């Protein structure tokens, strides 16, 4: 799709210039203008070089949505709000995206369609909220709700990253220490033992073979790693493999409870916030299943839709699945009785997020000593394997 700058004449004969985006050719542009009574006089394809990559951080999106919501709530037009936000944006990639969205809206696109072109930047939840706000006349409220939701999701991701940053750093340091010993230390002792004609025990022979593989066949190892990464990416796109992996994540040792809470938090919060802006429960479940990004929740969402269509309450429908905590189900029941289901579900997810924090901290407390023991065991094995032949040699000298 291209962007065209054109000059046209309206029904009264007045000339005007404008921009039209998402059109294939001048002929199509002429047809589109004719539908609304305009006559195309001339058109020129606008050159708008897109950046090579569109790297937009989640924090930038949250700031943008908060600003967009605030400007719309004060009565500023959508175009004026986007122009202001574009001028305030530092990231050139994001600036280009906002500019393109503005041009699409000027050309007559709906908010959802204009933002939907960048679904890798704006989530399905945000697009659903835009659609609900635009169609229901509650755009500023929908944007403010979206901003709150996106901020909470960003905080959750940040907490998860911060909690697991220490284990990752320790793992990388351990790998670096082991690699350095295998590449630089082991070959020196191996050469010494060959000169002394010392018989090598099993652990030392294993270490020597590993050192030779790493030093002489490193390129093969890199190719195997690259091939494994590509294979994993391809398999992750396979629906069957993805479904099995999603089920495994919710039942894996140690991390199963945390994964379940995170998935349920995303699912229920998305559903609750969409429902609070007037989106139907069925549509809200559709978007929530996509945001949760888990095939098991997708199946559950489909079954929940059928149950709700049959006239069953949300709470009793949720009760059929063990993945939803009893606390959430009780709050859902109370909310339905009081006519405040979205509000009660949001409160329930707030409690669930606190449980996620406690669970992550408890896991970190357990992971720290476990990683220390594993690192010590690996380094200890290498040291024993390196010095064991020396001990045997010294005993024979005595």
Describe what you observe in this structure.
With 398 residues, the chain is mainly α. The mean pLDDT is 83. Helix 8 (202-216) crosses helix 16. It has three domains: 2-45; 58-151, Type II secretion system (T2SS), domain F (Receptor-associated Protein, Up-down Bundle), CATH 1.20.81.30; 159-398, no CATH class. The chain starts with a strand and ends with a helix. It is 75% helix and 6% strand. A three-stranded antiparallel beta sheet has the order 2-1-3. The protein has 16 helices and three strands. The radius of gyration is 30 Å and the shape is extended.
Main sheet properties? 3 strands, antiparallel
In DSSP terms (H or I, runs of 4 or more residues), the helix count works out at 16
Portion of residues in beta strands equals 5-15%
Structural class: mainly alpha
Number of domains: 3
Radius of gyration: 30 Å
Descriptors:
mainly alpha, three-stranded antiparallel β-sheet, 16 helices
Task: Annotate the secondary structure layout.
Elements: E1 2-9, E2 15-23, H1 26-35, E3 39-45, H2 58-73, H3 78-88, H4 92-106, H5 111-116, H6 124-136, H7 139-196, H8 202-216, H9 218-236, H10 239-249, H11 256-276, H12 281-292, H13 295-309, H14 314-318, H15 326-338, H16 341-397
Antiparallel strand pairs: 1-2, 1-3
Short structural description:
The protein is mainly α and 398 residues long.
